[in-house]
Amino acid sequence: MQPSPRPPSPPTAALGYALFATRWLQAPLYFGLVVVQGVYVYKFFNELWTLVLRCVTGRATETYVMLSVLKLVDVVMIANLLIMVIVGGYETFVSRIDLQGHRDQPEWFSHVNPNLLKVKLATAIVSISSVHLLQMFVDVQHTSRHSLLWGTTIHMAFILSAAILAYMSGPMLGRAESAHKERHGSHGNLGSHGSHGTDPEPPTATAPQPAPVHAPFHAQIPAQAPPPAAESGAEERVRAAGFPARKLLEDYDEGHPRTFDRDTVARLGKLDFVAARRNVVFIGPPGTGKTHLAVGLGVRACQAGHRVLFATAAEWAARLAAARDAGRLAAELAALDDYAVLVVDEVGYTPFDAETSALFFQLVAHRYERASLIVTGDRPLGRWDEIFGGPSAPAMVDRLAHHADIVRIEGDSYRTRRTTSAWAD
């Protein structure tokens, strides 16, 4: 066993912090690019106004219109390049922009890293160069052969550079992922949680390579892989959440249930509901994948930087009852505010008496419009009076469903289907 490295001495630590703080010197550079963005907005509308005037007065030839449109496209593409540099560069090299779950967050922004940013910038430059080259060929009568030759050569150089950069970035990302899996291999699958008795779920991919994306539902769920610097923190949050097993939204067998709202689950995968403090309720018979989807959303939230806590309804009942008997129920509910998402699994498998139902009501009421709940159950909310005794069930359902996305899943049990198939064979 190797000895752990000694912590740096105070002068060394102070020097490191000072050097790290110098990243803020780049902030004015990005603000300057924001000004350039405004210049391009002015240039766009100036060019557009000129084009409209010439078209109205009949002085615009077909070639002129085409060249003007290409100029407008060129300006927009350069503006897009600026956005990638401003947002992606600032987030990567200066300070994290924590907008996880924002409804306008682009897909690529969820996993920005230097390699990804360089590849995207290279492809954007190739696109801009393509537009410039097209302008030359459209206006070939006024373009010298010398300009065409060098324009084509420079464009091919851009393409070659982007291809080499993409080729080099791929292995680097692959090696980083392999190293991460080796470091956290023992935590890659948290295993079965015997006390939970969760729904039998569709199997996840077990091959070392990612499962092929071949269905519209999977295509709608953008992967939310965190930046490398945040991976260890995400793994710690996943382990601390207490999931019965590690399930991913991308691994859900969407072909199994007869009825399944793919669009809603794809939207939930963007985590807008966490930022909006909304709830999610999965309703369906046993074995249709409710727990898989709930855990998948929980893992996605952990990767986005949120704290999540998972337990079955019976376990939540025991935890709240113990806090009540110890005279610290209010403190327990307040402590749960540290978790952006609480998962309550298997509602309906065990009926509760009036006192326990009152505890669940306090949990739902305390988190109402304050933080999110993900609940899985085997029967519609209108029948929850069969589960929760006493008068608290209607009030609890009212608060739970007021700001909630309710996903109904219909189908046969996945485990039953596999058993029947094996018996038939």
Fold and architecture overview:
By secondary structure, this protein is α/β, with parallel strands linked by helices. 56% of the residues lie in helices and 7% in strands. It is built from 15 helices and five strands. Strands 2-3-4-1-5 form a five-stranded parallel beta sheet. Helix 13 links the parallel strand 3 and strand 4. Helix 2 runs antiparallel to helix 3. It is elongated and about 85 Å long.
Q: Count every helix, treating DSSP H or I runs of 4 or more residues as helices.
A: 15
Question: Low-confidence parts, pLDDT < 50 over ≥5 residues?
Answer: 1-7, 179-216, 419-425
Q: Oligomer, anyone? A: single chain
End-to-end Cα distance? 52 Å
Could you give a short account of the major beta sheet? 5 strands, parallel
Question: Main sheet: which strands, in order across?
Answer: 2-3-4-1-5
Strand content: 5-15%
Total beta strand runs: 5
Q: Label the overall shape.
A: elongated
Percent in helix: 55-70%
> Structural class of the secondary structure composition?
alpha/beta
N-to-C order of helices and strands: HHHHHHHHHEHEHHEHEHEH
Quick summary of this structure?
By secondary structure, this protein is of the alpha/beta class.
Provide the descriptors you would attach to this structure in a database record.
alpha/beta; 425 residues; disordered C terminus; 56% helix; disordered N terminus; elongated
